[in-house]
């Protein structure tokens, strides 16, 4: 091909590109163009990086919010550590898990939750930890060898994100265990229920494997205050499995509502409820149970702080600790993770009550916020709850579902969700503007539409 022909093709291509650019500039508004070219400086330690600001998420779509956030930290973060997923031990567990197909063991439901990471299950906690890490930056005294400058986080912070997800996953897997016998018959012959026994072994061993690896990685960070902090979160997770009333299969049941004077009425959601439980003073100590049982908001909050909020909050606090941030900011990190977790749980609790009728055989959490608020409004429904002392299968879920939908529980839960979302956003806005902060804000806003 001759040079003249090549130059001619280049000229025609250049002309077409110029025409396309003119059309685009004519169609786009000045505001849009300004947002496209707008840039923001992100400061991490003493190094400044010029990066495009995170794109605001239209209509607060959850999947898009997570996708945009993963781009900011540089890679997908759900199950950050693929080393243990590809190990021989986990491969063997996966093979054995196939034997449980068709047995209806609870571990199968847990595995489905972990594999199909939909918007109804918040498994991307490592993503939250890394976004917080990037949003706050790190102290200038952090050595260069500790920094992952391409991602804007420290190597130790990435390790903590992996640890957080492994602890959370281990807890969910352990919840798949089934009590084979009531205490009165413990030690007797179990018969031929081999599928259940086998499923329990897999749940116990795989959960222990993940928890053991998390503890090993945590010790490898060689940070004694951080080890103490995350260890207290593991203690809270264990305590959450024994908190409050439960049936023989350890399914949680709500406490009996407190008796209120007729003039006082039920909770309206307008009064401010103290949700500190002692963790504002020292959050490594066990949470206080004083005045909790029977109070709908306090009981719901403590259940889910123990079961989820403590781990996420302390992981956010711990990542600031690794960054050398002041203790006051570390405490704000704990509050952010705690409120974010509670806002998320309120969204999950509302989901089963979105339809007029409960599907046949449908189940939902009896300690969800709508149920607890309705029991406080109408204590007579507790007679139905008491039928589940032996097993929650004896409860008429359709009846409870219809009662809750007709009462104030749903509206109070929406107010509760907004309350914790605003509390998390308040902490977030104390941080300097950055793409990571915008991504966290988009995730919180996306919860509203779940």
From TrEMBL:
Domain of life: Eukaryota
Protein name: Decaprenyl-diphosphate synthase subunit 2
Region (Disordered): 245-269
InterPro entries: Isoprenoid_synthase_dom_sf (IPR008949)
GO cellular component: mitochondrion; transferase complex
BP term (GO), one: ubiquinone biosynthetic process
One GO MF term attached to the UniProt entry: prenyltransferase activity
């Amino acid at each position: 091909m001759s040079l003249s022909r090549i130059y001619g093709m280049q000229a025609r291509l250049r002309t077409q590109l110029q025409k396309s650019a003119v059309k685009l500039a004519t169609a786009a508004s000045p505001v849009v163009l300004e947002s496209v070219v707008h840039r923001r400086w992100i400061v991490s330690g003493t190094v400044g990086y010029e990066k495009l600001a995170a794109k605001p998420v239209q209509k607060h779509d959850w999947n898009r919010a997570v996708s945009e956030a993963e781009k900011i930290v540089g890679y997908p973060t759900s199950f950050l550590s693929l080393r243990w997923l590809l190990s021989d031990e986990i491969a063997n567990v996966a093979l054995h898990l196939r034997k449980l197909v068709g047995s209806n063991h609870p571990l199968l439901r847990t595995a489905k939750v972990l594999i199909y990471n939909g918007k109804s299950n918040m498994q991307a906690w490592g993503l939250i930890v890394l976004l917080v890490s990037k949003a706050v930056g790190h102290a200038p005294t952090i050595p260069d060898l500790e920094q992952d400058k391409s991602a804007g986080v420290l190597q130790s912070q990435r390790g903590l994100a992996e640890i957080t997800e492994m602890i959370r996953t281990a807890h969910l897997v352990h919840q798949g265990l089934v009590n084979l016998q009531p205490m009165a018959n413990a030690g007797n012959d179990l018969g031929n229920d081999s599928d259940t026994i086998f499923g329990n072994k897999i749940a116990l061993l795989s959960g222990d494997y993940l928890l053991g690896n998390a503890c090993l990685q945590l010790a490898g960070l060689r940070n004694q205050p951080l080890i103490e902090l995350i260890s207290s979160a593991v203690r809270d997770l264990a305590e959450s499995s024994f908190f409050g009333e439960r049936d023989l299969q350890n399914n949680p049941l709500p406490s009996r509502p407190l008796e209120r004077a007729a003039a006082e009425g039920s909770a309206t959601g307008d009064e401010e409820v103290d949700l500190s439980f002692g963790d504002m003073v020292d959050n490594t100590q066990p949470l206080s149970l004083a005045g909790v049982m029977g109070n709908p908001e306090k009981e719901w909050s403590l259940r889910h702080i123990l079961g989820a909020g403590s781990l996420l909050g302390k992981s956010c606090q711990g990542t600031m600790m690794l960054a050398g941030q002041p203790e006051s900011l570390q405490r704000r990190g704990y509050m952010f993770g705690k409120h974010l977790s509670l806002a998320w749980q309120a969204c999950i609790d509302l989901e089963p009550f979105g339809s007029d009728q409960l599907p046949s055989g449908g189940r939902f959490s009896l300690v969800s916020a709508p149920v607890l608020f309705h029991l406080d409004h109408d204590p007579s429904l507790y007679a139905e709850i008491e039928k589940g002392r032996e097993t929650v299968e004896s409860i008429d879920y359709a009846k409870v579902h219809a009662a809750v939908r007709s009462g104030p529980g749903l509206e109070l839960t929406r107010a509760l969700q907004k309350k914790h979302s605003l509390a998390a956003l308040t902490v977030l806005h104390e941080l300097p503007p950055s793409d990571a902060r915008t991504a966290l804000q988009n995730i919180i806003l996306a919860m509203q539409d779940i």
